[in-house]
Amino acid sequence: MKKLFVYMKIYTKECILGPLFKLLEASFDLIVPLVVAAIIDTGIANHDMAYVLKMCGILVLLAVVGLACALVAQFFAAKAAVGFAANLRSALFKRIQSLTFTQQDKVGTSTLITRMTSDINQVQSGTNLALRLLLRSPFVVFGAMIMAFTIDWRCALTFAATIPLLSIVVFGIMLWSIPNVKKVQGKLDGVLSSTRESLTGARILRAFCKEEQEIRQFTERNDALTALQKKVGRVSGMMNPLTYVLINGGVIALLYVGALRVNAGSLSQGQVVALYNYMGQVLVELVKLANLIISITKALACLGRVNTVMEMNPDMVSGETLPETASSEAVRFDNVTLTYAGAGAPSLQNISFTAYKGQTIGIIGGTGAGKTSLVSLIPRFYDATEGEILINGQNVKDYPLQALRQRIGIVPQKAVLFKGSIRENLCWGKRDATEDEMLAALSDAQGLDILNEKPEGLDTEIAQMGSNLSGGQRQRLTIARALIGKPEILILDDSASALDYMTDLHLRQAIKRFSDMTVFIVSQRTAAIRNADLILVLDEGKVCGMGTHEELLKNNEVYQEIYYSQYEKEEQISG
Amino acid sequence: MAKAKKLDPAQQKIIIRKVLKAIAKYRFLVFLSLLFAAVSVLFTLYLPIQVGDAIDRIVGKNNVDFEFILRKLTEIGIVVTLTALCQWLMNIINNRITYQVIRDLRQEAFKKLNILPLKTIDAHPTGEVVSRVIADVDQFADGLLMGFTQLFTGIVTILGTLVFMLTVNIAITLVVVLLTPLSLFVAKFIASRTHSMFKAQAEARAAQTSLVDEMVGNQKVVQAFCHEEEAEKTFDTINEQLRSSSLKATFFSSLTNPCTRFINSLVYAGVGLTGALVAIRGGITVGGLSCFLTYANQYTKPFNEISGVITELQNALVCAGRIFELIEEPPQVPDKKNAKVLTNPEGRVEIKDVAFRYLPEKPLIKRLNLSVTPGQRVAIVGPTGCGKTTLINLLMRFYDVDEGSISVEGSDIRQVTRASLRKSFGMVLQDTWLKSGTIRENIVMGKPDATDAEVIAAAKASHAHGFITRLPDGYNTKIGEDGGALSQGQKQLLCITRVMLCLPPMLILDEATSSIDTRTEVKIQEAFAKLMQGRTSFIVAHRLSTIKNADVILVMKDGDIIEQGKHEELLAKGGFYSSLYQSQFAG
Do B19 and B155 sit in the same domain of this protein? Predict the structure, then answer.
C-alpha cells in the first residue's frame, strides 16, 4: 500500500506544513490557560489594570495567530487530500483501462466502480481529516497533561489517572460499536431486500397471494433490526454520561489536591483555574480522536481495496510490430483450448478450424457451449491456454493489441451504447467517419428508420446506457458502429436477438454485400446461420460438428436436435 | 409521489401535524425525554458555579477553607452523578422513541406497498420507493427526533447560561451576549459562500461518477473498440474539474471551525478582560471569573449547532413528506364486500368490449372481444411493444379495464375476490422472478403446505428435478433475489415448477425470447405442454409450435388486435401474420 503514497509525493510540502501549522495552532490554545492564570495571580491579585490589558491583548494576539495558522493548515490539508485523491483516481482509471478481461472478470465491474468512486472519496476525506487532526488531538491531550506537570506534578497526577480511564471508556465503546454497527447494517440489508422484493416481485407475489406472508416476514426482520439498533444505542448512549462522570471525578480530585497544594503555599489560585481549564480540553480532544480513528480506519480500508486493483499488473503482453503478410486465411484456430482463470474445467477444448477471407462462419450451440468464448479469442480478449489463433497467418500474440482489435468489428451480446450523440457513438467504430459513411453503416444495419423517428437525426443524444432507445434500436446501432470501420473480421455475438426475423434477414443480406469481410455469426437460431459457408456446432466446449447446413442436418445429431426444436419436430412434441 | 425538494410553510405545517400524529403514542416518553434533557442541561450549567465557589475558597497559603471545599466537592459529586443519570435516561428514552418510530413507519410503509395498485408500483422506479422506506425513514428519525432534542437542549443551554451568568455578573454577561452572535454570522457567511462551491463539486462528482459507471461498467466494449485513450482523456478533464471544485469546497467549508473558534477566543479574551477589571474592583470573585470563562467556552456551541440542526430538521421534514406520501398513496380498490369466491372454475373467460390505456392520451387496447371456452389455447403474437403483456395485467386484475368487462365463469372479475381470481390462474412470466430463499421455498409459493413428495413430483414433471439435485444443497440450496448462479433456463424451469405444483385451471404463459440452451429449451417446451393439457391458456408466444397449436391466435399491432383466427386461416389471409411467419423461414 506504501506504493500508493507516490501519488501524495508531490504534496510532501503540504503534508508536512499542514500538520505543522495545526500543531502551532494547538500550542497557542495550550498557552491560553497560562495567560488566564497570570491574569488572576498577577493582574487581579495586584489590581494591575495595565497588566490585565496587556494579557488580554496577548489573548487576542494568540487568537489571531491561531486563526492564521489554522487557515494555512486547512488549506494545505485540503490541497494535499484533494490532490492525492485526484491523482489516485486518474491512476486507478488508467489501471482499469489496462486490465485484461480475465482480471475484470475476477474483480467484477461493480467492484471497480465502487473503488473509483466511493472508496476514493472516503480516502480523500480520511486524508484531509488525518492531516488536520491526527497529530493535533493527541498533541493537545498530552500537551495539556505536560502543561499540568509543569505547573504542579502532584496535581498533574489526577490527569495521569483520568486520561487512561477516559481513553478506556471512549475507545472501548467505539471498539464495541464497530462490529455491532456492521451487524445492524446486515439486518438493514434484510429489511431492504424485503422491500425491494415486494416491488420487483409484485406480480408474482400477488399472483400467489403472498402479501400476508411477505408482511409477516418483513415484520420479523424489521423487529430484529429494531432490537439490535436499540441494543447498540443503549451501549453508545452510555458514552456521554460515563465520560462526564470521569472527567468531573478528575476535576473533584484536582480541586482537592489543588486545595492542599495551595494551602501548603506551593500553588496559586490562578494556577488551579489553569489546571481546571486543561482538564476541560482533554475530554473534547479525546472524543475527537476516537471519531477520527474510526474515519481513518475506514479510509485505510478503502485505500487497501484501491491498492489491490492498482497492484494488478496486466497479464497479457502486446505484440511488438504489425506483421506484414498476405494470406487467404482470415482466421485459423489450431487445436485451441481455453480454461478461464479459476475455472475447474476448460470452456473450449481442442478447437481447430479455418475461416477463409470473405467467408461467413456460423457458430451455434446451447448456452454455456462456448460460443462467446470462441469469438472472444479472435480479438485476443483472452489468451488461449493451449494452441494458437492465427489471423492472416500470424499469431494474434504477435500483433500490437490495438492494431489487432482495429481489424475486428464486434457486436457484443449486450447492446451497449454510450452517452453522447448517435454520431459520437458511431465514431467509436471509426474516429474520422464521414456523415455518408455513418448513413451507409446505419442503412446496412437496418437502422435508418431510427433517424427518421428522431428529429435531430445523427445528433440525437443517447441517454446513458441508451435508455431512450428500444432494445432493437440499440442493437442496430451497435451493429452500425461495428460496420462503419469496414473491419476485416466482423463478429456478431448473438446480436440480432432483439430484431424480428424480417429485419434479421435484411441485415444478413446487407452484410453479405461486403464481399471481403469475414463474418462470424453466433446464434441460437438455425435460420440465422443456415446460409453460412461453415457452421461450427459447439457442445460443452467442443466442436461436435462442422460443415454446411445441409451436411450437418444430414449427419449431426446435435444440430438436428437444435434445428428440429425450432421447426418441424415441435409438432411431435405438442401436437 | 412527485419529488418534493423544498417545502413551503403551509406544507411544513401539514407534515409537522402528521409527524406529531405519528409519534402521539410516545408522547409520555417524549415528555420524559425533554424533562431529563432540561434537568441534565441545567445541572451541567450549575457545575461551573460550584467549581467557582470552591476555587474562591482556595485563596493562598494557609488560606483554604477545607471544610467548605469538602462540602462543595461532595455536592459536585452528587450533581455530577445526577446529571450523568439524567443524560443516560434521556439517551435510553430517545433511543427507544427513535427506533420505535422507525419501526412503525417502515411497517406501515411496507403494508402499503403490498396493497398499492400495480399501476403505482409500475410508475415508480424500484430504487426510489426503496429509498423512501429505508433511507428517508432513517433520515427522518435521526434528523427530526435527534434534531429536535438537540434544538431543545440547545435552547435550554442558551437560556440557562444566560440566567446563570446574569445572577453572577451583568456587565460580563453583556460582553458574552453581544459578542457571540458574531460567530453565528461568520458561520452563516461561510456557509452561504460555500453553497455554490459544494454544488459545483457535486456536479463534477456526478459527471465523473456517470462517466465511470459507463466506461468501467462497459470496460470490455471500451477495449474492444480501442477507446481506452479517449476514455482516459475525457476522464482526466473531468477529474481536473473535480479536483479544483473539490479543493475550493473542501477548503472554504473547513474555514467554519477555525473562524468560529476564533470568535470564541475573542469572546474568551473579552470575558477575561471585563472579568478581570470587574474583579479588580471586587465585583466578582476569581471563582466567578473561572465560571464565566467556562460559560464563554460553552455558550457559542449551541448557537453553532442550532444552525446546523435547523437545516437537518428541514431535510427531515422533506423526508417525512416523502414517507407520508407513500403511506397515504391510495391503495388498490378493495374487494367488494359481497365479492364472490371463485370455486373450481372450469376456465371460461369472456372478454367484452375491453378498452384500456396506461396513459390517458395513448389508448393501448381499443375494443377487444374474445370468448374462450374451457381448455382453449389462446396465442398472442405481434412485435414488441404492441401490448401483448397488457392482456396479462388485465386478466390477473393487476390493472382494471377502462371500459368493457372481463368475466371468468360468467362473473365479472371485479365482482370476485382478487385472491380467488389469481389462484385460478397459473402465471409464468418471461421475467423469471425468484424470491431470495431456498429452491423449495420458491417452489411451494402457491402451495405452502406441499409435501416433499409433491414438490419432487412437480419438479420431475417440469424437468427441474435433475438440475436441482445437482445443486450443492439440493432443494435447500439458497438462491439470491436474482437467482444467483442459476441459468436463465433453470430459473424458467423453477417458475414452471412453481405453477406445476398447484396446477390451477387457467394459465398465463409469457414465453421467453432470450436465448436458452437447446436442451433446456426442449425441456421447457415439454413442461409447458404438460402444464397446458386440458387448461385454458393464454400464451404470449414467440415460438412457432405454440402458435401453430393454438386454438385462437391474436395478432396484435400498435395496441390493436388486427387479426384473429387459426394459424392456417391467418396464413391463407396473407396479411401481417403471414408476413411475420414468412420472415422466420426465409433464408
Answer: yes
Checking if the pLDDT of B385 tops 70, the result is no
- SS3 string, B528-562, reads HHHHHCCCEEEEECCCHHHHHCCCEEEEEECCEEE
Q: Measured between CA atoms, how close is B467 to chain A, in angstroms?
A: 15
**What residues in B contact A225, CB-CB < 8 Å?**
103
Cβ-nearest to B272 among A59, A244, A256: A59
- Answer for the pair A181, A189: CB distance below 8 angstroms, yes or no: no
pLDDT score recorded for residue B302: 82
Residues B155 and B305: beta-carbon distance below 8 Å: no
> Whole-model pTM above 0.90?
no
User: Which grid cell is A27?
Assistant: 500550542
State which amino acid sits at residue A500.
Answer: D
Residue of B110, B441, B493 to mutate when probing chain A, most A C-beta within 10 A: B110
Instruction: Please tell me whether residues B313 and B447 are part of one structural domain.
Output: no
Selecting from A381, A527, A573 the residue whose C-beta is nearest the C-beta of B525 gives A573
Residues of B in contact with A489 (CB under 8 A): none
**Distance from first CA to last CA of chain B, Å, rounded?**
51
Q: Length of chain B, please?
A: 587
Structural domain ending residue among the three candidates B446, B469, B503: B503
Check residue B4 and give its pLDDT.
Answer: 46
Torsion of CA A493, A498, A500, A506, to 10 degrees: -40
- Domain containing B485: what range? 434-503
When pLDDT is cut at 50, 70 and 90, the band that residue A71 belongs to is very high
| Residue B526 forms contact with A (CB below 8 Å) | yes
Q: Which domain CATH number covers B36?
A: 1.20.1560.10
Cα gap A185→A193, rounded to integer Å:
12
Cβ neighbours for A212, distance < 8 A, ≥ 6 positions apart: none
Q: Tell me what pLDDT residue B258 has.
A: 87
C-alpha cell at A187: 439486518
Cα gap A419→B272, rounded to integer Å: 63
Locus of grid cell 491561531: A66
| Chain A residue with the nearest C-alpha to that of B546 | A574
| Total domains, chain B | 2
Residue-averaged pLDDT of chain B: 85
Chain A with chain B: Cβ pairs closer than 8 A: 439
If contacts are CB pairs under 8 Å, which of residues 414-473 in chain B contact chain A?
418-419, 422-423, 425, 427, 429, 433, 435-436, 445-446, 448
pLDDT in tens, B30-81: 999 999 999 999 999 899 889 989 998 888 888 888 999 999 999 999 999 9
Test B73 with A368 for CB contact under 8 angstroms.
no
Is B472 within a domain? Answer: yes
Q: What is the CATH number of the domain that holds B454?
A: 3.40.50.300
pLDDT digits (tens, 9 = 90+) for A290-332: 778 878 888 888 899 899 999 988 788 888 877 666 788 899 9
Cβ-based contacts of A406 with chain B (< 8 Å): 226
B51: in domain: yes
The answer to whether residue B497 sits within a structural domain is yes
Cα separation, A367 vs B487, whole angstroms: 9
- Same domain? B438 vs B316: no
Q: Which of residues 56-75 of B touch A (CB under 8 A)?
A: 57-64, 66, 69-70, 73
Question: H-helix or E-strand containing B64?
Answer: strand B63-64
Q: Is A573 within 8 Å of B224 when comparing Cβ atoms?
A: no
Q: Which domains does chain A have, with CATH numbers?
A: 1-136+295-313 (1.20.1560.10)
- Is a pLDDT exceeding 60 seen at residue B235? yes
What ipTM was reported for this prediction? Answer: 0.82
Are residues B208 and A117, on separate chains, in Cβ contact within 8 Å? yes
Q: What is the pLDDT of residues B243-296, one digit of tens each?
A: 999 999 989 888 888 888 898 888 889 988 998 888 888 888 888 888 888 888
The answer to whether residue B19 sits within a structural domain is yes
Contacts of B80 in chain A (CB under 8 A): 244-245, 248-249, 252
Q: Which among B130, B289, B427 is the nearest to A195, CB-wise?
A: B130
Residue A342 pLDDT more than 80?
no
Q: Which of B251, B392, B548, B556 to mutate to test the interface with A (most CBs of A within 10 A)?
A: B251
**pLDDT at residue B428, rounded to an integer:** 87
